[in-house]
Amino acid sequence: MKTDTHQVPQGEGKGRTIVLTLVMAVITVVMFSQGKMPQDPKEMIALVLTLLFANTLFFLLLYTGRTDRYRAIYFSTFAVSLIISFVSHMFEARGSMSLSETKILQCEVPFCHLVIPMTLVPMAITKTIIFPGSLLGKYASIASMFVIWIGATLALGRGFCSWVCFYGGLDDGFSRVLKRPVIRNINPKWIYLPFAVLLLVALTAAVYLSPVYCSWLCPFKAVTEFQAVTSTKILIQTIIFVGLFIGLVIVLPILTKKRTQCAFLCPFGAMQSLTNKINVFDVRIDKEKCVKCKRCIQVCPTLSMSEESLEQGCARITCMKCGKCIDNCPKGAISYHIKGTDIPGKRNAYRLLFLFAAFLFLAIFSSHIIQDGIVRVLKLITTGSMIS
Amino acid sequence: MQGFFLGLSSGLTCVAYCTPVLVPYMLGEGKGIAHNFAALAQFLLGRLAGYLAFAFVAWLINLSVLERLESKGLLIGALYIIFSSFLMIYAFFKTDAPCAARSIGHIAGKIKASLLIPAMAGLLSGIAFCPPFLLAMTHAADKGSLSYSLFFFLMFFIGTSVFFIPMPFIGALRRFQALQIIGKMAAGIVGLYYLYAGIIAVVAGVKGI
Ligand code: SF4
Ligand code: SF4
Fold first, then answer.
1. CA distance B30 to chain A (A)
2. Which of A24-33, A154-163, A195-204 has the lowest mean pLDDT?
3. How far apart are CA A362 and CA A320, in angstroms?
4. Which tops the pLDDT comparison, A231 or A119?
5. Phi and psi at residue A253, in whole multiples of 5°?
6. Number of CB atoms found within 10 A of residue B119's CB
7. Which of A50, A333, A359, B94 has a CB 3.0–4.6 Å from the CB of A289, allowing a cystine?
8. Domains of chain A as residue ranges with CATH
9. CA B64 to chain centroid
10. What is the pLDDT of residues A229-259, one digit of tens each?
11. Which of B15 and A162 is assigned the larger pLDDT?
C-alpha cells in the first residue's frame, strides 16, 4: 500500500505491464519491419536495437507510472536521429546541406510540418501548396506529412509537440541539462508570442504566397537545410537561423529549463494549441487533492500551469501533454483525462489510453528515422563516413 | 498588398492600445448593437478622412522635401529604423503606447454633442502619430506618387478597420486581454521587418554617398 505522500507515480502491476508491452511489441515489430527482415547486417542491428529501445521504454512508462522521464529519452533520441539521418541524406543527394536555386525550382525541398500553418490559407484561396516540395515523393513528401499531422492532431491535439514533432526533442533535451534553472522568472506574456507569429506568418503567406517563416525565422534550418549563401539577404537569413537555434534551442532551454523554442516562438505549436480544444484528451487537476505547493507551475516546460490553472482545475490551452507536471505532483492531483468524464475518474485507464495513442505515434513516426540514424552511426564506426 | 499588410498589423496595434480606451466612449453601455454599429460607422468614416488627408500630406512631403534630397534612401532608412524601434519597444516592453484616441476621454467630458464623439475619435486615430502610423507615412512618402499614396492609405484604412468590426460585440469577447497582447506582439514583429528594411536602405544609402 503506497503512503499518501508517495501516491505518485502509480504504475501498472507487473503482469498487466508485461501483457500490454507484448501487445506493443507485436505492433512495433510489424510496423518497424514493414513485414520484411532486412538483409544488410547493419540494418538488422538497427531494427533490433530500435525495437528493444521502444519496448523497454514502453515497459518502463507503464511499470513506473512515470511519463515524462521515458518519453523525453525517446523524444530526444528521435530528434538527434533526425539530424543525423537528414543531414546524411542531404549530403548523399546534393553533396551539402545547402539548397541550390535549381533544387527549389525543381520542387525538391523536403516538407516539414512547421510549414502547415502557412499553407492552409493560400491552399484555400488558390488551391495550390506554396512550398517547393514534392507532393507524393519518397522522402518527406507533402502528402505524407499532412496525413501524419491530421492523424496525430485528432488523436493528441498539442500532444503532437511532445510526442510526434521531430524537432521538439532538441529543446526538450537541452532543458534537462542543468538540475536547477539559472533564469527563473519568465514573464508569462511570452506564451502569446507564438500566436502573434502564427497570425503574421499566416497573413504574410496569404499575401506573398510564400512560406515567410521558413525563409526568415525557422531555427531548425541551422541543422537541416538552408539556402546557399549567395547574397547579403541570404547571409542575414542564415545569421537569424543560427542565432535563433543557438538562443532558443540550446542556450535558453539550458538556462531556464523550459522548451523556449516551442513555448515562445513556434507558430505550429500555437496552431496545435488551438487544436487542443477539439482533442478528447486534456490534463486536469483534482482540486480536492491539490495542496497548492506550485511544484507543477515550476516544472512545466511551457508555462502551461499557472495559479489560474490550479483554481480552474485544468492546464492552459498551450499544454503539450508531456506529463512532467503529472510526474512531479507530490499529491497525485494531476492526471491525463478524457473530456466529459469525471475527475479523477479512472485516471489509470485514461492514462493508458492516452499513452497507447501517443506512444504509437512516436514509435511509428520515428522508427525509420531512428533506424537510419543507427545505420549511419554504424557506418561511421566501420567505414569512417556516414554516407554511401 | 503592402499597405493592406501594414494596415492589418497596425490594426493589431490599435486593438492592443486604442480599443480599450475607445470602447467606453464609442459604445454607450446597454444601447444595443444597432447603436454600436452606427457609432462604429462614424468612427470609421472619421478615420478614413484622417488617413486620406495624410496620404495627401505624405505626397506633399515627398514632392517638396524628399525629392530634392540627395540621400533620400538614407533618410527613409533612418526613419524606418527609428519608428520600427519604437514599435518594437512598445510591443514587447511597454504597457502603454501613444494613441491619439486616448485624448478622447478629455474631449468627451467637454463636448456635449455625444454623437460626434465617435467621428472625432476616428479622425484623431486616423492622424495619430503612433509608431505604425509613422511607419505608414514614411512608406507612402518614400514611394512618391499621389495615387500610390492615396491607394496605400486606403489599404491601410481597410487593414486597420478589419479589427474594429467585432467592436459592437466586444462584450462577447471573453479573451480580449489575450488578443491585446497577441496584437501588440504581432505589431512588434512587423517592427522587426521594418528595422531590416531600414538597415538595408541605410546601408544602400551609405554605399551611394
Ligand atoms: S504540484 Fe500538485 S499539489 Fe502542487 S500545486 Fe500542482 S497540482 Fe497542486
Ligand atoms: S501542463 Fe503538464 S503536461 Fe502540460 S505541458 Fe505543462 S508539464 Fe507538460
1. 30
2. A195-204
3. 14
4. A231
5. -60, -40
6. 19
7. A333
8. 7-96+347-388 (no CATH), 97-279 (no CATH), 282-345 (3.30.70.20)
9. 24
10. 888 888 888 999 999 999 999 999 999 999 9
11. A162
Nearest chain B alpha carbon to A198: B186
From residue A262, alpha-carbon distances to A220, A271, B39, B120, B133 in Å are: 12, 12, 42, 44, 32
pLDDT value, residue B116: 58
Ligand 2 midpoint to CA B4 (Å):
38
Asked if B178 and A236 come within 8 Å (Cβ–Cβ), the reply is no
Mean pLDDT of chain A: 87
> A323: how many CB neighbours lie within 10 A of its CB?
28
Phi, psi values for residue A270, rounded to 5°: -60, -45
State the smallest CA–CA distance between residue B6 and chain A in angstroms: 10
What is the DSSP track for chain B? Answer: -HHHHHHHHHHHHIIIIIHHHHHHHHS-TTSHHHHHHHHHHHHHHHHHHHHHHHHHHHHHHHHHTGGG-TTHHHHHHHHHHHHHHHHHHHHHT-S----GGGGHHHHHHH---TTHHHHHHHHHHHT---HHHHHHHHHHHHH--HHHHHHHHHHHHHHHHGGGTTGGGGGG-TTHHHHHHHHHHHHHHHHHHHHHHHHHHHHHHHHH-
The x, y and z cell numbers of residue A28, run together, are 512495433
Q: Is A324 in the pocket of ligand 2 (CB under 6 A)?
A: yes
Among the listed residues A318, A319, A295, A317, the one whose alpha carbon sits nearest the alpha carbon of residue A307: A295
Q: What is the pLDDT of residue A1?
A: 37
Instruction: List the one residue out of A370, A317, A368, A329 whose CA is nearest residue A159.
Output: A317
